[in-house]
Write a structure and sequence with these properties.
This protein is α+β, with helices and mostly antiparallel strands. The protein contains 33 helices and 14 strands.
């Protein structure tokens, strides 16, 4: 959770000595909430919420200034992507309903048409027309919108456009439209009339994308609820698929100007933000409208930056809001003081009911919380978060009025707080991180001692420029989500499945053969390839409240870790294993051989001091980098993970300069192949680590394509293998990113039939 909230509750716990009010034995969340609410000042929690800033969009003046800047850039033929970024900022800054907002949408539509994003441009035109766009300029927006509809080959959208133009003309087209515009209008009318008129009945269908067809959920004393393979599952076989019941963004203060949809989880979108808070973003008008029933209760929290402060508790609130409609009538019975049912009895009643009665929310409510095993400090923190969020919901949002809730408000507040607290506890041990490739369109570079922005994308689309793929995309945690069915899979530090995310849908594949009736096991984060045994055990105990007895933890994994940390002493020439700490090395601290106690050569660490991406000094510095890396290779043996990190740093700095000379390109290509092999060996080809290593190789092929006069690159056998593995691995990222990256690769490389398979 965020530091502001952490500091507040730590002070409250200490000053009020709240530990004494916790029950000696945890029974249920409502019991804890009721106990604490008697000794916790509601006014104190409300005051904390009141003291949070109200951060609204910057305002009409700021929006106009940003739009004017975008207009000037557009006029002077700056990069379309830089112009788009300026218009995005203008839209985010504009107040709801303002003329500045309408003007910004209309202007952004122009640059989006240039970039071939007709669907978003069409919606921008619609928002301008629905908003306070000047009457005398509306005609050109209608024709611009018609251009988008035609480009999308969706002539059904032309009807409202023709009507809008006709209303402006008010029956006298010759007075308003030029001859060319009248001809164009007639063409639009003809195309619309030709659209086959048929009514499509909107049938409500159940979501059949979720399935656990190949596993069954069992329960026993040793493993609790767990998943068993119903049939033998072979490597790469789909095991399960599930769409998240709820998800929220991961707020990274270091990430700027990236936008992801809060309704469908599409990443790297053209933003259609909530114009009230200016923070929650969506990929379309439809997603924004569809999410309004939930966002109306979160909008004030965005203005107060509340969700940035409370971490996983935001997903607890979102889970409650997503499920409240289905549980409302049942919850009102819980809040009836005359009946006063026990919370645990009520939960059992809800979670054991018919599948259709409470939908997916029933599955969420049935997930474990581990409150009875948690440190009391954590129980208190989650309970106070539940109390605070119920106060926020009742006092700062239209929650009560929206649902017509007037009776038993105090009891209702406690029940809501108990459910939110329950969700927070569930999500701590059941939440999934949705990782994806986050994109950016520009970055800073040095040249001649100056730092300046340069555009990473091609001028007329969203594909990376040749050689810049590695700078465009980076692996990031985008959302935290809850998948209640797949959450029932038990943990193993060496799982037999892998997780693939596409928007908010998680598909699980087998990583090796899983015999019938064998357990299907997931990894909750501490994977044996990423974390040593003692650290894994500590992490699992702290967050998930259990001791891991998987084969890796029982048998130890020293051999695996030692394989990727081998060091060779230049004095006795003996090899030994030691995990290096780069901060330790950069600070000048020595490392000693475990055989002869001689100091190990760490002078190669100067690579990090020598690297400079200023183009003016690349020729001068790179030869030193090569010499130092040769020393690094002599010291760090085989697939040493520190050596791989050094390679990654070199490639990240110099790949964009690879066309400068043959020596530079040749050395970088060798390093890229070495990094690809290292990442594949350690993390397997179906990993984001392997994919990001491949991005350097793709970029170097792209730059060779340019140097050779736009002739597609013919690959060696080793390179073909890397490309084939890359094309298999790209399936682990979402569809939009997958298409972009494959389109990028196929511009430069000759793909034979074997590679295409």
């Amino acid at each position: 959770m965020g530091s502001e909230w952490d500091a507040f509750i730590e002070g409250a716990i200490t000053s009020l000595n709240l530990y004494q009010y916790l029950p000696k034995r945890f029974t249920d969340e409502l019991n804890v909430i009721q106990r604490l609410s008697n000794f916790t000042s509601r006014a104190e929690l409300q005051d904390w919420l009141c003291q949070l800033p109200n951060i609204l969009p910057a305002g009409e003046a700021s929006s106009n200034e940003l739009r004017t800047k975008g207009n000037a850039m557009f006029k002077h033929k700056s990069s379309n992507h830089l112009v788009l970024a300026a218009y995005n900022k203008a839209i985010l800054a504009a107040p709801a309903g303002s003329r500045a907002l309408a003007l910004s949408h209309a202007n952004r539509a122009v640059v989006l048409i240039r970039l071939g994003r007709y669907r978003e441009a069409y919606e921008d035109c619609q928002l301008a027309l629905d908003g306070d766009y000047p009457a005398e300029k509306r005609l050109k927006v209608y024709f611009r919108q018609a251009e988008c509809a035609e480009s999308m080959n969706d002539h059904s959208k032309l009807g409202p456009i023709v009507d809008g133009i006709s209303q402006i003309a008010d029956g006298d087209l010759s007075q308003v439209l030029s001859k060319g515009e009248r001809v164009k209008l007639q063409t639009l009318q003809t195309k619309y009339d030709a659209v086959e008129k048929r009514s499509v009945e909107a049938a409500t269908r159940s979501d059949d994308s979720n399935f656990l067809a190949y596993v069954k959920i069992c329960s026993n004393r040793e493993g609790g609820r767990h998943a068993i393979a119903q049939d033998t599952l072979l490597t790469d076989h789909i095991v399960a698929r599930e769409t998240a019941v709820s998800f929220v963004p991961v707020y990274d203060p270091n990430v700027r100007n990236t936008y992801d949809c809060q309704k469908c989880a599409k990443v790297n979108v053209i933003p259609f933000p909530c114009s009230t808070c200016g923070s929650a973003c969506y990929c379309s008008i439809q997603c924004r409208d569809d999410h309004r029933p939930v966002h109306r209760f979160e909008c004030t929290g965005y203005q107060k930056r509340l969700w940035h402060f409370i971490g996983i508790a935001h997903l607890g609130m979102r889970s409650f809001l997503d499920g409240f409609d289905t549980i409302r009538s049942k919850m009102l019975k819980l809040c009836d003081e005359k009946c006063d049912p026990k919370f645990d009895v009520w939960l059992t009643d809800v979670t054991s009911g018919g599948e259709k009665q409470f939908g997916h929310y029933k599955q969420v409510l049935g997930l474990v919380t581990n409150f009875h095993r948690m440190d009391p400090d954590d129980v208190l923190r989650y309970a106070l978060a539940g109390l605070m969020l119920s106060i926020y919901l009742f006092e700062f949002t239209p929650f009560l009025s929206a649902y017509g809730l007037t009776q038993g408000i105090d009891r209702l507040r406690h029940c809501c707080a108990a459910l939110i607290m329950r969700h927070i506890g569930q999500l701590v041990c059941n939440g999934h991180a949705i990782s994806e490739l986050r994109a950016k369109s520009s970055c800073a570079s040095s040249y001649g001692g100056h730092r300046e922005a340069f555009v990473l994308l091609q001028e007329d689309n969203f594909l990376p420029q040749a050689g810049l793929l590695h700078l465009c995309f980076s692996s990031s945690r985008i959302f935290t989500a809850i998948f209640p069915q797949i959450s029932m899979f038990n943990h193993d530090c060496n799982p037999n499945i892998r997780n693939h995310f596409d928007r908010s849908t998680l598909t699980v594949y087998a990583t090796r053969k899983i015999p019938q009736d064998s357990e299907v096991v997931n990894c909750y984060g501490p994977h044996y390839k990423l974390m040593p045994r003692d650290m894994r055990l500590m992490h699992l105990k702290q967050q998930y409240c259990f001791d891991c007895y998987c084969d890796r933890c029982r048998g130890g994994d020293d051999m695996f870790l030692s394989k990727y940390n081998v060091i060779c002493c230049s004095v006795c020439w003996q090899q030994f294993s030691m995990e290096l700490n780069m901060e330790h090395l950069l600070a000048g601290n020595s490392v000693f051989c475990t055989h002869c106690s001689a100091a190990i050569d760490t002078d190669w660490v100067r690579i990090f001091e020598q690297m400079d991406d200023d183009q003016e000094y690349v020729d001068r510095d790179f030869q030193r980098i090569v010499t130092l890396y040769d020393r690094c290779e002599q010291t760090l043996v085989g697939f040493n993970q520190t050596k791989a990190d050094v390679l990654d740093a070199i490639l990240h700095t110099y790949t964009k300069h690879a066309t400068m000379n043959h020596f530079l390109h040749s050395a970088l290509q060798k390093y890229a192949m070495e990094l690809v092999s290292s990442r594949r060996e350690r993390y397997d080809r179906m990993s984001l680590e392997f994919l990001t290593a491949c991005s350097y190789l793709l970029d170097l092929w792209a730059m060779l394509y340019l140097v050779n006069g736009h002739v597609p690159v013919e690959l060696s056998k080793e390179e073909h293998t890397a490309l084939k593995d890359f094309r298999a691995a790209i399936s682990i990222v979402g569809m939009e990113n997958r298409i972009l990256i494959l389109d990028y690769a196929e511009q430069f490389v000759i793909l034979n039939e074997e590679t295409r398979d």
